[in-house]
Amino acid sequence: MTRAAETHAAEEDHDAAAEAYAAAMQEAGFPPERNDPSSSSATVAAWTRSYLSFRRGASLRRAGRLDASARALRDALATAPNFADALFESALHSLDAGKFSDAFETLERLACADRAFPDLQRWMTRALAREKRGEAR
């Protein structure tokens, strides 16, 4: 199921990719909260849920479905608050939504989680500049 989602994403069919990620999550039997948090299978389930939620959120953002994207990204970060790729995607979501201060704050969180994230300073500068210019989307 995940392979189909990746294929849709690569073909830039982001609506279909988002639906395929949702189906993969359902197929995997989420939510994982029912599992014992001390078991290794619960940890794997939590990371899998976070990854699939992140990928779904990215696809939804690219499809222009910002509300649904925000929910999926919040879900990903609730499970793994320092997941660098999900933090970056959340910042891109905020930029797309015209929430530049939120984007900058998320990029600051990303800097705390992974200072070596590619082009982080450039993205922080973009978010801050757009906020100072008062750009609206």
Question: What can you see in these coordinates?
Answer:
The protein is mostly helical. It is built from seven helices and no strands. It is globular.
User: Given the structure, what is the number of helices?
Assistant: 7
Helix/strand-derived class?
A: mainly alpha
> How much strand?
under 5%
Low-confidence stretches: 32-36
Gyration radius over CA: 16 Å
Mean pLDDT: 87
Distance between the termini: 35 Å
Question: Can you lay out the helices and strands and say which pair or pack?
Answer:
Elements: H1 2-10, H2 14-27, H3 40-62, H4 66-79, H5 84-96, H6 100-113, H7 120-133
Helix pairs in contact: 1-2, 2-3, 3-4, 3-5, 4-5, 5-6, 6-7
Give a short synopsis of this structure:
By secondary structure, the protein is an all-alpha fold. It is 74% helix and 0% strand.
Features:
single chain; 0% strand; 137 residues; mainly alpha
